[in-house]
Amino acid sequence: MLQTEYEFTLPCGYVDAQGTLHQHGVMRLATVLDEIESMQDARVRANSAYLSVLLLGRVITVLGSIAPVTPAVVERLFSADYVYLQDLFVRINDAGNGIIETECPSCGTRFPLDLLQGATP
Domain limits at 44? Predict the structure, then answer.
């Protein structure tokens, strides 16, 4: 079964206007529509770096008690959390969904390794 949602914990956490810390969240796989609509946004045409902000705002479904997560929330993340989420986005949306084949250095047995979850049976 295809996994479409991934839980995460931010290294620092988002602090909302009331001072509440939000560290745990869920990110879903991106769709073609996420990519297309984000690329058409005027903010991306003015500054291509804004694409990541819009994409993360679309694919992060929950952050602590915040749902939906908007680009305005993403804009206020600490840099370490933003980089962490960009990396997670790339890893889960990779064609292989983070699964690589590797080999045991001791016995030579080959097995799949899910970079997001650990060894798979």
Answer: 5-119
